[in-house]
Description:
463 residues, single chain, Protein-Tyrosine Phosphatase, Chain A
Amino acid sequence: MRICTLEEVARFSGGRLVKGDPSLPVGRLHTDTRTLLAGDCFVALQGDRFDGHTFVAQVKNHGAVAALVSRPIATSDLPDDLGLVEVPDTLEGLQHFAANYRQLLFVRTIGVTGSSGKTSTKELIASVLRTLYRTKATEGNLNNHIGVPLTLIRLDEDDEYGVVEMGMNHPGEIAPLVKMTAPDIGVISSIGPAHIEFFADQAAIAAEKAELIAALPPEGLAVLNSDDEWSRRIVNRTNARVVWVGSGPESTWRAQDLQIGTDGLSFLLRHNGSAAQVRLPVVNRVMVSNALLAAAVGRECGLTMDEIVRGLEAVQLPGARMRVVQAHGASIINDAYNANPDSMKAALTALSEFPGATRRLAVLGSMGELGQHAVELHRAIGEFAAQQNLAFLIAVGPHAESYARGAMAAGLSHNQIVAALDAEEATVALKPLLREGDAVLVKGSHFMGLERLVNTITEKVSP
């Protein structure tokens, strides 16, 4: 963030300066007392189980020079040189500040959303753009009503691009993120049933995702996947120019000659008569679509094909996303970061295509936020899993029974299925099953904690 004055903090956040020198320089707005830096303004957020106001009196000890609050605080309880700005609501104040701060910058922003693949797509886009431009991107998956404004605040005056991931799990959440970000380019990785617990149906999810491209200016750009049915259905929501990637006839970016190895995949990237070989450090074919989206953004931002390929191949994906590690002679495909029905199918397909495996095993944790559709969707994934030539299925968590029923309906025997309560039970079940040459997929929603299984099996200790 460029240095702002305390007066600007008050004005941009829609608050009033209660205490402090209006010209006091502020390095950034920050919400976590544990990672405050000298010159920060602490934002006292409130939640159901926490209240940042209880820490305001101590933030000066952590380097903060000011605080943003939403209720009166006795100045006698505060250090004399701690600035204070009061707003009606600190979260809204943070969001107002971020939106106004973004307007100060000449940076071009790229909004990325999708039911699955958005974090990987964001990382691929950022990696491509960094070959030529100063680029910042959402850290990890800080993509919500708090993470997006913090991402915008991280942008500096000399940054040329900002890649902003936008997530949602309730109706009405994308539009405010888009308004703050004011993207020039909008990218949708896919539209599936993730978070359907909070929506009437998948059409409602698609309508929510469409808020990104609907807000693009006419001179903007929407980059969409032609292989995604719902992306095709919502394209009329945008007035921006559209670039398609994938196998559809309208696509100008395509992948051919896909080859999957034990440590990555390669394909031929094609665009308007040009072609280049790309190798990605993942074994999941769905990543090819994400790479095409990133390639399209890169070209629209002025990169050559060689620069695009270099950026794609340099990507470093955060978290456990289809990483292959070796243990006990087996290949463990670690995708324990998160899960929804579409990403489950993609990961299981990758398991079925994993080369050289003598047997294939899947450890599937339950998926969250599916509501009344949970039983049906878990059963469907169980059926799909059984069709991938599995030797064993270990189903984990509250919906293990639904996984098992689906798998048995599709042909797996009772002896090939183990139901486990949690990651620890699944670890106990997996250990005696492992053989040299096996390929094992480990995937589930984050709340299942299946990374503990991977750490134990690979004899790594969690930090």
